[in-house]
Design a protein that fits this description.
heterodimer; A: 364 residues; alpha+beta; 21 strands; 33% strand; elongated; B: 291 residues; mainly alpha; two-stranded antiparallel sheet
Chain lengths: 364, 291
């Protein structure tokens, strides 16, 4: 990274006896869109609050735009926050809300008016909204006002604390698309906190997956999906399959075998598989979309499983099957392209197969 | 809040409201009307004479003495409002934001003090304010000249008692307004670049207005009728309206005069509250508008 706008190293945060962050390090580039993802209590919001200056870290070092942020209050930082519940001032009009930071900076009336109107245009809000109060706007409009309020002071970094969690699914989708477009247009660094990895994959350039106050993996959406660091990351996005396997060092890679498939049907783990695996707690991640029904013979090298259709769900573009396989606690999930003809019905005995080269070897 | 126009045609609504409406009419509206009717009567040899006469009203409007007391009552009430709010706001603010650990204990103490009989508490102040009382004793031992304070049986003594007895009302109304303010609004103001003081005046204070106004109204109304404090701590040297009304009824046995003074006091209070309400509504109505 040429010029990180945020450089956090070894950030520790204690709340009394509870440690919320265990030495988190993260660099965010200028103009980058980074998402902090994890289940609730993973420390992502705490990290965001430390970036904003609402919380002081117990230990570690935080630099924003090359400046040490120790003791720098939120008011003096080049960051602006969009709050989860938006936190628009209910007693101020839209114009007063957006222009609040400009008023504090003593920006002239004419210039402030111009910048507020420019923000309104950017957010596709109608000019007559300026004199309205937040309570008179719809949820999506309030969302845009909150974004306008944060961006009007031209911050170096925009911090977003799950700003779309309260919206209905359809509005959420359209605002996500707008947020991505907005980021491309203005080139400000965005840091988005979300518990929705799908949302993070859609929007972010890089994703930082957190758990229990630790960073588990930082990478591009493709890295997170195709090269997950462990079962936690792999399981965090949607439903997926973990098959029990044993891995032993062999030749240049790993020899992988599974009790589920016929003896001797082993594979040598491909290059992209993490080499630092221990045999203990090893699992093979098989994405649902890589599994297919086998009507005839298997392709060379393919792994086969015999089972019974437990249930299927028609989702339109795709059809999901759940296959009960002997020796496996959870049903195997497979996503097939949607089709007007169902390949199998409930209760039918089926043979499924996948290419282990497309699977990933993971540890706990 | 929206009021349905057709509510009179709703039998269930009318039936549920009827008992309360009847009680209010019987014990509030009717006595008030009786008081007004009483002002047009006269007295002869300490007996009520049933007539329609403007004699009492001519007396009320011709004697500046009554109006001096009325103006003093309103002035004292306004000063009391200012003092109680000035004391209550910081206390409520501390309770809502800083003293969270001991919040419950402090609230219980305030409620105990608030629920203790006002007569008892007011007489207690005599022990403190008396020339040989606790206040002067403490001041003397702190190196001040002896008998420095002379507050008992002065308007200042009355004011101390009134403020003490009424300060809990605005403390609770303001507290309730303050705890309802979303903490994120304060953070949002900091985030926009506001200092702590600026945030207080731009966010916290405007959003605590409902509690501020309702507390002020309570104190104003209650101190207009202050009776105990001017008597016990003011010593009758500068009586307030309630004492004047009591004298008219009891000492002078002039019921029509007492009734007229009561009507005047209620009218002054109602007019001032209406003016304040108009002012407050003009400033807050816009934020309460529904979406």
């Amino acid at each position: 990274m040429a010029s990180p706008i945020i450089d956090a190293s070894g950030i520790v945060k204690d709340y009394g006896a509870v440690r919320a962050l265990h030495g988190v390090s993260l660099q965010i580039g200028t103009g980058e869109f980074v998402a902090l993802v994890g289940p609730s209590g993973c420390g992502k919001t705490t990290l965001l609050k430390i970036l904003a200056g609402f919380e002081e870290p117990t230990g570690g070092r935080l630099e924003i735009q090359g400046r040490d942020m120790r003791g720098v209050p939120a008011a003096s930082r080049p960051t602006r926050m969009v709050f989860q519940k938006l936190a628009l001032f209910p007693h101020k009009t839209v114009a007063e809300n957006i222009g609040f930071s400009l008023k504090l900076q003593k920006v002239g009336k004419a210039e402030a008016g111009g910048r507020i109107r420019a923000m309104l245009d950017l957010m596709h809000l109608k000019p007559e909204y300026l004199e309205r109060y937040p309570a008179q706007l719809s949820g999506g409009e309030q969302q845009r006002v909150a974004l306008a309020r944060a961006l009007v002071s031209q911050p170096g970094v925009l911090l977003l604390d799950e700003p779309m969690s309260a919206l209905d699914a359809k509005l959420k989708k359209s605002l996500q698309a707008e947020l991505k477009k907005l980021h491309r247009e203005i080139g400000t660094s965005f840091v988005l906190v979300t518990h929705d990895l799908e949302e993070a994959m859609m929007l972010a350039d890089r994703i930082c997956v957190m758990r229990g106050g630790h960073v588990v993996q930082v990478g591009t959406p493709a890295d997170i999906y195709y090269r997950p660091a462990n079962m936690f990351v792999a399981g965090f996005i949607g439903e997926t399959n973990f098959l029990p396997v044993t891995a032993t060092a062999a030749g240049g890679g790993m020899e992988v075998a599974s009790p589920l498939v016929a003896a001797g049907q082993t594979i040598i783990a491909p290059e992209h598989v993490s080499p630092s695996l221990s045999a203990k707690g090893t699992a093979l991640l098989v994405r649902p979309e890589t599994i297919r029904f086998l009507k005839g013979d298997a392709a060379p090298g393919e792994w086969l499983l015999d089972g019974q259709v437990e249930e299927y769900f028609i989702k339109g573009a795709s059809t999901q099957y759940r296959i009960r396989v002997r020796g496996l606690d959870a049903a195997v999930i497979m996503d097939l392209p949607g089709s007007i003809v169902l390949p199998a019905v409930v209760g039918e005995a089926v043979r499924i197969g996948f290419d282990p080269v497309q699977a990933f070897l993971l540890s706990e | 809040m929206r009021i349905e126009r057709k509510s009179w045609n709703d039998p269930v609504l009318v039936a549920t409201v009827a008992p309360l409406a009847l009680v209010m009419v019987a014990f509030f509206v009717v006595p008030l009307l009786m008081t007004v009717v009483l002002t047009f009567q006269t007295t002869q040899f300490y007996r009520l004479v049933w007539t329609w006469d403007l004699k009492v009203w001519t007396e009320v409007f011709s004697k500046p003495h009554y109006w001096t007391i009325m103006i003093r009552t309103v002035t004292m009430a306004l000063i009391c409002v200012v003092l109680t709010v000035l004391i209550a706001f910081p206390a409520a603010y501390a309770l809502a934001t800083r003293l969270k650990t001991f919040k419950t204990q402090i609230q219980i103490l305030i409620i105990f003090a608030f629920l203790t009989d006002a007569v008892l508490k007011t007489f207690g102040w005599i022990l403190i304010l008396d020339k040989n009382g606790v206040a002067n004793w403490l001041l003397m031992h702190a190196g001040f000249p002896p008998e420095m304070l002379n507050l008992l049986f002065t308007p200042a003594g009355t004011m101390i008692g009134m403020v003490y007895n009424l300060v809990a009302y605005p403390m609770f109304t303001i507290y309730l307004s303050l705890v309802r303010i979303d903490r994120d609004l304060v953070l949002a103001a900091y985030d926009a670049g506001a200092s702590r003081i600026r945030t207080f005046f731009e966010v916290t204070l405007p959003l605590s207005r409902p509690g501020l106004y309702s507390g002020a109204v309570l104190v104003f109304v209650l101190s207009l009728g202050a009776f105990l404090e001017p008597k016990v701590l003011g010593g009758g040297t500068s009586p307030l309206a309630s004492e004047l009304i009591r004298q008219s009824f009891e000492t002078r046995v002039n019921w029509p005069l007492g009734a007229a003074l009561t009507v005047v006091l209620i009218a002054i209070g109602a007019l001032m509250l209406a003016a304040c309400a108009a002012f407050a509504l003009r400033r807050t109505s816009t934020t309460e508008r529904p979406a």
